[in-house]
Amino acid sequence: MDHHQIASFVVRFQLAAVDKETGRKQWRIKVTHVQEERETLFESIVEAMEFMQEMANEA
């Protein structure tokens, strides 16, 4: 196992909508895997974290 591998991510949150009745915010989450220059969009932080974990395990 190489202890010098790096998996870097940039995570951006963009407000997509706000429910007028509840005030609940809906976010668009863009995750960029820096080493592969791969961008993926998500609607939940749970999905984004799962993606980052998968990418880090592949590194």
What would you note in describing this structure?
The protein is of the alpha+beta class and 59 residues long. It has one domain (9-58). The protein is 24% helix and 41% strand. The protein has one helix at residues 45-58; strands at residues 9-18, 25-33, 38-42. The chain has a three-stranded antiparallel beta sheet with strand order 1-2-3, with helices on one face. The protein is elongated, with a radius of gyration of 14 Å.
Keywords:
single chain, 59 residues, alpha+beta, 41% strand, elongated
Strand order, sheet with most strands:
1-2-3
The profile of the biggest β sheet is: 3 strands, antiparallel
Instruction: Indicate the structural class.
Output: alpha+beta
- Name the helix and strand elements from N-terminus to C-terminus, one letter apiece: EEEH
Number of strands: 3
Number of helices: 1
- Average pLDDT taken over every residue: 91
Which strand-content bin applies to the residues?
Answer: 35-45%
Q: Please give the alpha-carbon distance between the first and last residues.
A: 11 Å
Shape: elongated
- Catalogue the unreliable spans: none
Radius of gyration: 14 Å
Topology (SSEs and partners):
Blueprint: E1 9-18, E2 25-33, E3 38-42, H1 45-58
Give a quick summary of the entry:
The protein is α+β, with helices and mostly antiparallel strands.
